[in-house]
């Protein structure tokens, strides 16, 4: 289940974000977290089953959702969590086009999510 980020989840969110190649540096990671907490267009979501196992971060533009971060706890990878997060987020923003960044593009391709709105999966 996709849930909105709250300050109480900061440590686990930072841990999951640190798996992203562009978030290895602590200062960069702290800046990213600050943006998710303070910028209204930056939205961070966590994936929770029994525990929080994944995270997806986006920037909302007028007609696009730019997926900046997708991260799943390594012990829960290859279970479809990343794809489930994308699908759940797509349901929240049905009217928008989803676009990846250079860091999330390979995952989009792996999930066949790039032109998902034109397919009937």
Summarize the structure.
It comes from Lederbergia citrea. With 121 residues, this protein is an alpha+beta fold.
Comma- or semicolon-separated keywords:
121 residues; alpha+beta; Aminopeptidase; 4 helices; globular; disordered C terminus; GNAT family N-acetyltransferase; GNAT_dom; transferase; acyltransferase activity, transferring groups other than amino-acyl groups; acyltransferase
CATH architectural label = 3-Layer(aba) Sandwich
CATH hierarchy, class: Alpha Beta
CATH topology: Aminopeptidase
Shape type: globular
**Helix segment tally:** 4
Please provide the ordered H/E string of secondary-structure elements: EHHEEEHEH
Number of β-strand runs: 5
Strand order of the largest sheet: 1-2-3-4-5
Specify the structural class. alpha+beta
- Kindly report the average pLDDT value: 92
Tell me which oligomeric state these chains represent. Answer: single chain
N→C terminal distance: 20 Å
Output the CATH homologous superfamily: Gcn5-related N-acetyltransferase (GNAT)
* Total of domains: 1
